[in-house]
Specification:
It is built from four helices and 23 strands. The protein is an alpha+beta fold and 353 residues long. It has four domains: 43 residues; 73 residues, conserved putative lor/sdh protein from methanococcus maripaludis s2 fold (Beta Barrel); 88 residues, Elongation Factor Tu (Ef-tu), domain 3, CATH 2.40.30; 62 residues, Helix Hairpins (Orthogonal Bundle). The longest helix has 30 residues.
């Protein structure tokens, strides 16, 4: 074979090799992609969602039940019996025997005012009384002997009675120099010190009864009909943080035009006497019952800002998004995400479980 023919043959062979190589590569790709395997119909690909159901896992079957939504209305604690002590005379304070927070007994002396001037007036009034009594007795003796006129007798008797009245008035005013506790209670708002000038009407001390406390609550008008006089209500306080029972003692008939509320006063059962005036608290008002889904609060787990429960499906557990509502003790209302008959885990699976 000539060199020319060999060259032509080599070119033809190279031209033929390229299509064969391309075809082989295509077959390899097709085989790798499973083109020559039996195809699975769309929707038939089986996956197993969730995690296996743990042995002895505690579950809860969702049921519909009637609940009464609880609305909290905020208010402030005050004593139902608070006495503000003041004086009826103008005098300097000579002694203060009680401090804010001190427990006192009814009749205990709390403040003494300077009584020297009042005692001087009393001494002078007693002297005048003695003179008027002497004059009255002398005139009475003369009148019985018909040696004094009826007019003189009347004048002597008037002076004598006036002197007695004057002494009695000063004696009463002298009692105003000692201010005593009107009730058993605790002192608050001490506003005076020794040496201060006390004037009539000025509040010097306040005493409240710690066993007679109440919540003063502005209740929205739409909720007033849920409350009635002598009704027992639930109360929670910031301090002490334990539940209390209260009794509605007063519902003010006037409506606040700005807040559209009515003031309700609720007496608190405070046998321990550890509630302080001014404490922030809540009175719980219950609305009409309605069907709802309640589940154990422990079943809800937070994932970021999402609320989830672990839903049981056969032998598997999957996460289900829910929306929670009000809490009722150890249970929480589910507003969406669950239906009656669903089964959930009472205690969710751990993320690495």
């Amino acid at each position: 074979m000539s060199a020319q023919k060999k060259g032509i043959g080599m070119k033809i062979l190279q031209v033929i090799k390229w299509p064969i190589a391309i075809a082989g590569l295509a077959l390899m790709i097709a085989g790798t992609g499973g083109m020559f395997h039996a195809k699975v119909a769309a929707g038939k690909l089986e996956t197993t969602p969730g995690k296996p159901l743990p042995e002895k896992a505690k579950t809860h079957t969702v049921q519909m039940t009637k609940v009464a939504p609880r609305i909290d209305v905020v208010g402030t604690v005050a004593s139902a019996e608070t006495v503000h002590l003041s004086t009826r005379i103008s005098a300097y304070v000579s002694r203060v025997s009680a401090s804010a927070g001190q427990q006192v007994k009814k009749g205990q002396a709390l403040i003494e005012l300077d009584s020297r001037e009042m005692k001087e007036k009393l001494a002078a009034a007693n002297i005048q009384l003695k003179q008027a009594r002497t004059e009255y007795n002398r005139t009475l003796s003369l009148y019985k002997q018909k040696a004094a006129t009826e007019q003189a007798m009347t004048a002597a008797e008037s002076r004598y009675n006036g002197a007695k009245t004057r002494v009695a008035e000063i004696e009463v005013m002298l009692t105003y120099t000692k201010i005593k506790a009107p009730i058993n209670g605790i002192v608050t708002d001490r506003r005076v010190e020794k040496g201060d000038l006390a004037n009539p009407g000025q509040v010097l001390l306040s005493v409240y009864d710690p066993l007679n406390m109440r919540m003063e609550v502005p209740v929205p008008v739409r909720l007033i009909e849920k409350l009635a006089l002598n009704q027992t209500v639930d109360i929670s306080l910031d301090r002490p943080s334990r539940p209390f029972k209260g009794r509605v003692s007063e519902i003010v008939s006037a409506i606040d035009p700005l807040s559209r509320t009515q003031e309700v006063k609720v007496l608190i059962d405070n046998k321990k006497g550890d509630i302080l005036p001014g404490t922030f608290g809540r009175v719980w008002v219950y609305e009409d019952p309605h069907p709802a889904v309640l589940i154990p609060a422990s079943a809800v787990v937070l994932s970021g800002q999402l609320e989830m429960v672990h839903l049981v499906q056969g032998e598997r557990v999957v996460r289900q998004m829910v929306k929670t509502g009000p809490v009722f003790g150890k249970k929480v209302e589910i507003l969406s995400g669950l239906s009656q008959g669903d089964v959930i885990l009472v205690y969710p699976l751990k993320e690495n479980g």
